[in-house]
Amino acid sequence: MWDKELEAARQASQEAGKILISRLGRVNHITKKGVIDLVTEADIEAEGAIVRIIRSRFPGDSILAEEGGEVERDRSRVWLIDPLDGTTNFAHGFPFFAISISLQVDGDGVLGIVSSPPMGEHFEAFKGGGAFLNQRPIRVSRTLDLQESLLAVGFPYTIRQNSLRVMDHFGKMVTRAQGIRRLGSAAIDLAYVAAGRLDGFWEEGLKPWDTAAGVVIVREAGGVVSDYGGNPYHPFMNTIVASNPHIHQAMLSALNS
Ligand code: IPD
Ligand code: CA
Ligand code: CA
After folding, report:
1. Residues 109 and 44 in one domain
2. Is residue 57 over pLDDT 70?
3. What residues flank ion ligand 3 with Cβ within 5 A?
């Protein structure tokens, strides 16, 4: 049903991936959007390539991309794009990052791609079509208990202003889960929940382009996504919890304890 859109998003992620791989370990120019919030020339170049491809195929669609590649057209069809999710990793030559591309139609995520070029892993899903890793179907884990769960978390760039709250949540989870990872790419955290490698993920302060694609993939893999209060996901919400269906309530209870 979303064949043309998926094809364009695949091509865009491949082009961006080539740019990112060619720049990995060779970053010349880093600017700062905040004290610890970085932008490299690779973010900008990769975003340019993605936006060019999407615009040429779907000139009537709107685009919201992290590094400023906004195009406002038909508001019922909006592409949410993070050309490089995991910029801090990338800037250090730490090969763990992704390209995240999603299409929202009438406010609903219909397609999501999370592509991790260094790993050679391409996650994708469209609404009602299941979730795939390198074309093989994926499902969330079957872990039943939080204490048996491997979770991931991310820290917002505003951590210096709200460290007490973020660390309070961290403390509540780390004492209840089997293990916690901080990988540095929210898009991959979500894709790994979808693939059952992680049982759950939580973070506050993420932006629509960080989460939109991964959420389509998690849902299509049988997972559940809400905010910390249990309200259903929408791309502009400030907190996110994504997990298999069995541990979702336990994660919410722990965060709100
Ligand atoms: C960041 C990553 C990171 C998360 C941050 C995000 P960026 O995105 O997803 O894992 O903890 O909150 O902003 O800046 O690398 O695109
Ligand atoms: Ca991001
Ligand atoms: Ca980014």
Report:
1. yes
2. yes
3. 66, 82, 84
